[in-house]
Amino acid sequence: MVFHKKATRNEVYIVAKIIDGKAISAQIKEEVKQQVARLKAKGKEVTLAVIQVGNDPASSVYVGNKKKACEYVGIRSLSYELPEETTQEKLLSLIDELNGREDVDGILVQLPLPAWISEEGVLERISPSKDVDGFHPQNVGALCVGKPGLVPCTPAGIIELLKRSGIEIAGKECVVVGRSNIVGKPMALLLLGENGTVTIAHSRTKDLKRVTSRADILVVAVGKRKLITREYVKEGAVVIDVGIHRTSGSKKLCGDVDYESVEPVCSAITPVPGGVGPMTIAMLMHNCVESAGKGFN
Ligand code: GUN
Asked: What is this structure's pTM?
């Protein structure tokens, strides 16, 4: 059973069974907006460079949303739309140029990249201090050993969802389903950093139901629609759904969790859409301020 902590005078929690990512991300964006304004008053304009290679429609939507969020919170965004046939050399030289620019605080290269470009090579070229995605091995290492660094946006957003919903992590059985570098692994490290007891399950896990059924906090990031039904969930668990899928033949979205089946047995759950999704961009904005704020606070 998960016990939700009561809000003290200085903490504003949004306590509800359905965790409202839209409301919590709006709260974070308002905080970021104020921080951006404070930096501006000190003469620092927060700037994010966004690079997209090619014109994958999904990537274009994500990049468009990131630029809109920048505009909303007052961050200047520089947009680099490179043609599909861009070489790795060209992309790396743009990153080098942006690394060297004092007026650029964050660099984001939208993934996926064309097949002939090494994702690893590109992500490692971004200066760790401007790596607002938190994907550079130096930031991953910092997260692993509990040192300050830039943290991947989706798992950082999930920690905010839990904390701002008054959900305690310390001492809880946390199960993360999925071991990607973008979500699963950093999620497990962040939960561990909050003193959770953490298990990572993945495609080779034997008897997944047995593993997920012991979770007080279950985070699902596997990219398989409605994989998690009520048989996988302990009564009273908190369920966080990172998946997003278009229901075939309709415009409706669904997650990795079968919401209708799981909602009646859990104590809190993120909906799709409107749960984890909006948090990623809010935390990207937060990371831009983190990066820009160094030396200005
Ligand atoms: N493509 C899908 N998700 C992400 C993300 O979080 N960051 C970047 N750079 N590309 C992505």
From this structure: 0.94
